[in-house]
Amino acid sequence: MPFRELSQIQELNRLFLKNLEHCILATEPRGLYEPIEYILAIGGKRVRPLLALLAARMFGDGAESPAGLPVALAVEVFHNFTLLHDDVMDDSPLRRGQPTVHEKWDVNTAILSGDLMLIKSYDLLTRLPFPERLPELMKTFNRVATGVCEGQQYDVDFERRNDVTIEEYLKMIELKTAVLLGGALEMGALAAGADRADADHLYAFGRLTGLAFQLHDDLLDTFGDGARTGKLTGNDIIRNKKTFLYIKAVEGLAPAEREEMIEWFSHSPEDPAPKVARVTELMRLRDIPKLVSEMRDNFQTEAYAHLDAVKGDPVWKENLRVVADTLLRRDN
After folding, report:
1. Domain carrying residue 18
2. Would 236 disulfide with which of 14, 185, 196, 241, CB 3.0-4.6 Å?
């Protein structure tokens, strides 16, 4: 990453982290607020707030009382709320290499602390320094939040089905993951006074980048290094999740191998290691990592066409491109 872009991106990250630390001021009762402090402190890529801040800077957002900051904070708190509840629904033991909230505390705590994070995300959005822009931002936030919940339900439904199509899966990840990336960019731009056409192009850029991001995440879940990702390698296979990798493999395997794959995904053995090993072997047999990588790259190419159409500051457009490139080269 060029020094100039790195320096500017680090500046935005410092601004965000400084404000994140103090964005939720209440501390009592500790059983409610401590889990929120915990999930916000253990990190993550902080992609969504960075996108919101970058989008705002593209349209002249200043360093003093920046309009993009309330959006960035609201998006990050909302995103972590979804993670708390997703981890409960998935019974995930780890998040970012640390125990999940429901493992460290309990399920009831994770649900209630997550509920409060949702409320706080809306409260943070109302701190926008230009109140006349708030109605449009609130409308966008509601649209995005609704999409995320719809995507999560599709994800749950797909675990009970063996006939999920590629189109259905892409719709699910668009709602569950991509719309929030797009929404962060759209809201950051609108907060800084961008017109609707530019905001729409940025939303499309984020949505397509989000699809590419999720496909890359699916690859890392199955073929990544758990020590690098902070997650249990093969967790999607263990949980019988019908990811793009599974659907594409079933579509291309010979009948006997297809039946074997479906059988593996119909139960959960006590020792999952043989299942993970055989399923990944079947996926490699159909060259699934290469096929998924190609689709990821196609989405990103389409995304950059939308970014090129945006009329914002070219320096900050380039910063945004650098961040997207980094996301799709990551190994964690």
Report:
1. 3-327
2. 241
